[in-house]
Amino acid sequence: MADKKLDTQLVNAGRSKKYTLGAVNSVIQRASSLVFDSVEAKKHATRNRANGELFYGRRGTLTHFSLQQAMCELEGGAGCALFPCGAAAVANSILAFVEQGDHVLMTNTAYEPSQDFCSKILSKLGVTTSWFDPLIGADIVKHLQPNTKIVFLESPGSITMEVHDVPAIVAAVRSVVPDAIIMIDNTWAAGVLFKALDFGIDVSIQAATKYLVGHSDAMIGTAVCNARCWEQLRENAYLMGQMVDADTAYITSRGLRTLGVRLRQHHESSLKVAEWLAEHPQV
Predict the structure, then answer these.
(1) Coiled-coil annotation: which residues (predicted)?
(2) What pLDDT, in 10s, does the model give residues 113-132?
(3) Which pLDDT tens digit goes with each residue over 158-208?
(4) Active-site residue, selected from the candidate residues 15, 19, 59, 111
(5) Does pLDDT of 108 surpass 80?
(6) Which pLDDT score, from 0 to 100, does residue 101 have?
(7) 95, 135, 136, 137: which has the fewest C-beta neighbours closer than 10 Å?
(8) Active-site position among 49, 195, 210, 254
(9) Is 219 a member of any domain?
(10) 201: helix, coil or strand?
(11) Which of the residues 18, 43, 47, 58 is marked catalytic?
């Protein structure tokens, strides 16, 4: 679907008939326990419970699977984990890959709760964090350590809106610590204006509460991963009890359908404000 225009992708993403059951949109399937027709069907579900097979509500229902498929189609990922908010997506994505003695390198313009998680929670687990200037580019190599496990980007940065030179940063990191996991808070780009995984990022995280939901009536976080990281992040999220309810997943899928037109209006309105400010004598 990557060869189609963005609006077409947004309208069609996640609309597989196995999730919609013939309707235009995915069904809202609220469930905890599920009923199976036979013991063999239950065994089949158990074997495939981590791969989009109905098994138990915490693993997801058709509503969740539809949204996860949509996010993978839009961002080009191997899998998508869902979280109750963006902060949970950031925290659990990091936790999935670090252990005592590791080092996290994070941009100093990251969302404040992301920075606080590292300084107040990871520090208790024996994981150190240091910070880099968002405009550092290839000079990020000066901050890399042999034990750097995660390099965390956010572009544009929260509040101050600096934009990373992502290709330069990725190339520099791979040249020094090739096995490091590179993550990005991709909320500002809504996962579609910047296709992070196409630039060598391993995990693209969003506070989908913002642009994807779009109407301030639901909270959800997403983490779309490449094949290298998907299984580990997926299982960590499951073991940490991370999930969203079916109604929130549905609202997010519905929000995708109008994301394109909303982003265009954001662009138009923001440009008018910027042009007005550029001419203002007090600026």
Answers:
(1) none
(2) 999 999 999 999 999 999 99
(3) 889 999 999 999 999 999 999 999 999 999 999 999 999 999 999 999 999
(4) 111
(5) yes
(6) 98
(7) 135
(8) 210
(9) yes
(10) coil
(11) 58
CATH of residue 243's domain is 3.40.640.10
DSSP string, 5-40: -HHHHHHHTT--HHHHTTSSS------SS---SSHH
Question: Is 35 inside a domain boundary?
Answer: no
| Active site annotation includes 18 | no
Q: What are the tokens at 204?
A: 């693209």
Q: Is 185 a catalytic residue?
A: yes
Element (H, E) at 152: strand 148-154
| 27 inside domain | no
Rounded Cα distance between 41 and 112, Å, is: 46
Residue 234 host element (H or E): helix 227-239
21-73 pLDDT, tens per residue? 999 999 999 999 999 999 999 999 999 888 888 999 999 999 999 999 999 99
User: If DSSP codes are grouped into helix, strand and coil, which group holds residue 112?
Assistant: helix
Residue range(s) defining the domain that contains residue 253: 77-258
Among candidates 52, 49, 67, 51, which has minimal Cα distance to 13? 67
272 is catalytic: no
Nearest of 145, 140, 146, 138 to residue 108 by alpha carbon: 140
Distance CA 193, CA 203 (A): 16
